[in-house]
């Protein structure tokens, strides 16, 4: 099984992503809505892939990767970034 951590402050995207991947064989998905919580989970857990929203309040997806490295994360961490479009008023 491939273990995926999905990080997004948008609850609906978390639910959609989890449902989509878990319908396929071979994936288990954990979702979290905060970069800070994700950092704790990455440091204490073992995820094969981290998918993170780029823009989140408090800690962006890039900040999450930097914080992981700064805290001494030594294993390779493969990250994909999702940037929402059309949020808010224009």
Describe the structure.
This protein is α/β, with parallel strands linked by helices and 90 residues long. The protein has a single domain, classed as Rossmann fold, CATH 3.40.50. The chain is built from three helices and four strands. A four-stranded parallel β-sheet has the order 2-1-3-4, sandwiched between helices. Strand 3, helix 3 and strand 4 form a beta-alpha-beta unit. Helix 2 (35-44) runs parallel beside helix 3 (61-70). The radius of gyration is 13 Å and the shape is globular.
Whole-number count of domains = 1
Q: What is the CATH third-level topology name?
A: Rossmann fold
Number of helices: 3
Radius of gyration: 13 Å
Shape: globular
Looking across the biggest beta sheet, what order are the strands in?
A: 2-1-3-4
Supply the CATH superfamily name. Answer: Response regulator
Head-to-tail CA distance between termini? 41 Å
Low-confidence segments, ≥5 residues, pLDDT <50?
none
* Overall pLDDT confidence: 85
The helix content is 25-40%
* Biggest sheet layout: 4 strands, parallel
Question: How many E strands?
Answer: 4
Strand fraction band? 15-25%
What is the string of helix and strand elements?
A: EHEHEHE
Alpha-beta classification:
alpha/beta
Q: Class, according to the CATH hierarchy?
A: Alpha Beta
Q: What CATH architecture label applies?
A: 3-Layer(aba) Sandwich
């Amino acid at each position: 099984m491939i273990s995926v951590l999905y990080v997004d402050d948008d609850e609906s995207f978390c639910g959609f992503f989890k449902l989509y991947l878990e319908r396929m064989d071979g994936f288990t998905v954990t979702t979290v809505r905060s970069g800070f919580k994700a950092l704790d989970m990455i440091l204490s857990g073992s995820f094969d892939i981290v998918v993170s929203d780029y823009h989140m309040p408090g800690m962006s997806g890039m900040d999450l990767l930097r914080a992981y490295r700064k805290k001494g994360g030594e294993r390779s961490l493969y990250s994909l970034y999702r940037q929402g479009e059309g949020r808010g008023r224009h």
